[in-house]
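Readers outside the structure-tokenisation community will struggle with the description of the input data as it stands. What matters is that the chain and its backbone geometry are given together, residue for residue. For illustration, here is how one protein appears when written out as sequence plus structure tokens:

…
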Amino acid sequence: EWSKLYLAHHWPVTVCKDCQDPPEYWTIHGLWPDKGEECNRTWHFNVTEIKDLMSDMRRYWPDVIHSSLNRTQFWKHEWEKHGTCAATLPILNSQKKYFSKTLELYQLVNLGFLLKAGIKPGSTTYYQMAAIKEVLTEFYGITPKIQCLPPEEGEEAQTLGCIEFSFTKELELRTCTEPKEELSVCNDTLPVYYPSQVK
């Protein structure tokens, strides 16, 4: 029984392993209930159920981590691992509803506004964690979870990678608390690098 949902955005330039031209905007990683995985192993992904969402799915929910894989594999993984659990909520109880509602929430918390606030990707600029948090909190009225890759050897800056928003079952924003693995939660004292191109 889960109590909240996480909408994870990732910064393709940071998370891409073998991308040629990663998107230069935040993309969706997934919409995840806080508990449970693979809740219904018999409910298989069927891409035809989301065919009318396809152009938005390709644009906003590409597989930037494994760019060489068939892109529907990523959506299949997200549905079977997380969507089948989220489906206990009537508003998310089909593949069509799960994917379209995720796209809707992604537009609702559009991270494009970071640019308007003067926080933009670059190859030489570093930001303070406090400045990024302040902008996000001011804009949304809640604090999302910001995750970074730790500094590489010989460097002092961490790299911005993922921003997670938390929603109640009523799909209202709430402040994020629990850490999730994958990337570590950013260190408040280290400068933050927001890369504009893959190293």
Remarks:
- The chain has a mean pLDDT of 91.
- Helices lie at 12-15, 54-60, 71-86, 95-108, 113-116, 129-140.
